[in-house]
Design goal:
The protein is α/β, with parallel strands linked by helices and 305 residues long. The protein contains twelve helices and eight strands.
Length: 305
């Protein structure tokens, strides 16, 4: 994971409830602390959608436009609307025509409802933000962190627009989609962090998603297993505990033993089936310390060889 701070785009994906947004927020802060100019984004199809990432970063009202959070860190919503607007501004001869078109409710509904056009808007907005420069010609943002909304969305961003290229073979739409897919599929520029839990079903879903994004050539930077319970037993000590045949109904703490076993099996399964060790984030009981502890863990992981 050491080189992940050098990616231009980091996609954070996973099943709901696994701590994906917390990891996205902590990674954004860690990259900013490492000296990178970071834009943390959250995919939203409407600007009035709930914004958990903004809440974690302390942004009261997130918008399409980047807002400064702290030194080296900004935050924005990643919306198809903004992508469509910037695409039309680039494609049409007059900016006022693009602005007028996007003020039409009917056109906006069509662009969100038509197959693939929403994903095309997200891709174009990603490119637009990545290409923004400062007065000295350097990129405004070194790293774009994208908190994806659902387990399969990383697949949708790669799969659906690629179908467009089979139908449209040239022109501005073709160029925009081609550039967006090239960025997403470049392992030097893009990496995906999959977040999961050390339980059977989330682990299976993470493995399935990892295989799916590999099929569509989206680079996998790592798998983060969140809320891994602390195992206080050495193998010898666990053998003694198992030999006692503790009754879970009458022995305090005995119910945690099967959870420790599931966590161990999940970690071993990820490494066996995907050929890489997962990155472990320990379980944190004090919710007030969650983001700070995850930030510290990610910083340590990213600095590891």
């Amino acid at each position: 994971m050491k080189d992940i701070f050098d990616k231009r785009t980091v996609l954070v994906s996973g099943k709901g409830g696994v701590g994906k947004t917390t990891v996205a927020a902590a990674f954004s802060r860690a990259a900013a602390a490492a000296g990178k100019r970071v834009l943390a984004t959250e995919v939203a199809y409407e600007t009035d959608s709930p914004t958990p990432l903004a809440d974690l970063l302390g942004v009261k009202h997130a918008t399409d436009d980047p807002q400064r959070v702290s030194d080296n860190l900004s935050m924005a919503l990643l919306t198809p609307h903004a992508g469509h607007l910037h695409f039309l501004r680039d494609a049409l001869p007059m900016r006022m025509l693009a602005d007028a078109a996007m003020k039409s409710a009917a056109i906006r509904r069509f662009l969100l409802a038509a197959p693939s056009l929403a994903e095309m808007g997200l891709l174009y907005r990603m490119l637009n933000l990545l290409r923004r420069t400062r007065s000295d010609g350097s990129f405004e943002f070194d790293v774009l962190v994208i908190d994806l909304p659902a387990t399969g969305h990383a697949l949708g961003l790669a799969q659906v627009p690629s179908a467009i290229l089979k139908v449209i073979t040239r022109g501005p739409v073709y160029d925009a989609v081609k550039d967006g897919l090239a960025m997403m599929r470049d392992p030097l520029r893009t990496g995906t962090l999959l977040v999961t839990l050390p339980e059977t079903l989330p682990t299976s879903e993470a493995i399935e998603l990892a295989r799916g994004i590999a099929t569509h050539h989206v680079p996998l930077a790592g798998i983060v297993v969140n809320r891994v319970p602390h195992n206080p037993f050495s193998p010898a000590e666990r053998a003694v505990v198992d030999a006692l045949a503790l009754d879970p109904q009458r022995t305090l703490g005995a119910r945690t033993l099967p959870r420790l076993d599931r966590a161990r099996e999940s970690l071993a399964r990820i490494e066996s089936e995907l050929g890489r060790p997962p990155m472990i984030l320990p379980e944190i009981i004090d919710e007030a310390q969650v983001e700070a502890r995850v930030f510290a863990a990610i910083t340590a992981l990213a600095g590891a060889a």
